[in-house]
Amino acid sequence: MKRLFVLIIALASAFCFADDVPSWLKKPEKEFPTKEYIRATGSGNSEKAAQNAAISQISLYFDTKTDVLTLAVKQSGEIIAGDKSFFASSQSFQQLTQITSNAEFFCVKFTDSWYDKKSDKFTVLAYINKKEAAQIYTARITALMEAVNAYRDYAKSEKEPFLAVTALHKAKVVSNLCEKYIHNETIIVPSDTEKWQGALKTISLIPAEHNALKKNVTFSIHLNQKDKRFDPIFSTVASILERYGYAYSVKDSNYKIILDISCIEESYEKGEFVRPSVDVLIVNNAGTGVYSYSKALPRTGSKTMDLAYTRAVTKIKQDLEENFLAE
To answer: Of 47, 113, 167, 261, which is the most buried if we count CB atoms within 10 A?
Structure first.
């Protein structure tokens, strides 16, 4: 009798456990048929970890990486947000803002998480409705290509070479995101490949157009301060120009980069301090400014003023590496 009672309890527990498992985990094909959905499950020590694991599996379907798309979204978003007034007259800025500020990965949605007490793990199912995703991607691709074409048209009509190059650089960044969206959309709907051939051809032309314009943009670098301690800043700007594919020289250039470094000295019982700031102005041969950048940096300190200056220069170099010409 006792054995029978134990068996009944065990069977009851098993049935309860089975009923506790969500239907999307027991029968995923029934809940999310592959004809209509892309799906993947993920498990982890928390709900967020489970979602990340599921997204990693989804990304394999698209043969890409989460961080690659996220970076493309971020870079394009920064450019479009910075050019709000530029886009206001040519297209729906609100639509572009939605595209770049909402960085969801491949239009993924998640089921509620399920916690398995036995394994102490959370499990979720990530899914994409193919029809809905295709519509969203199509809208995004269309809006982004309008932005790309607007930049290209501006570059063709702009007489200032530096501004034309800048416009094509922006077109290049935005088209990078657009190309990734086209890649994803055609994986969801392979028959749409032909539809995007024109957009892909335009995107393929941009790097060559950008490089051709760069040949018309050369720089000379002028550091206002003669203090040798600031020489590394000169070298940093030169290396940034090389990284972006620009030529620089002391003469025979059509643009001048003027660097102005300011350091306010402060002395305290704890040591010597410097408050650095940097101002950069790019002017053409007529003396007209085409680009400016300025930044006041937090003070740096050390036991001696020379070491304080060394740290201040390092801060300026780091800031220029991250921000100069980046936009």
So the answer is: 167
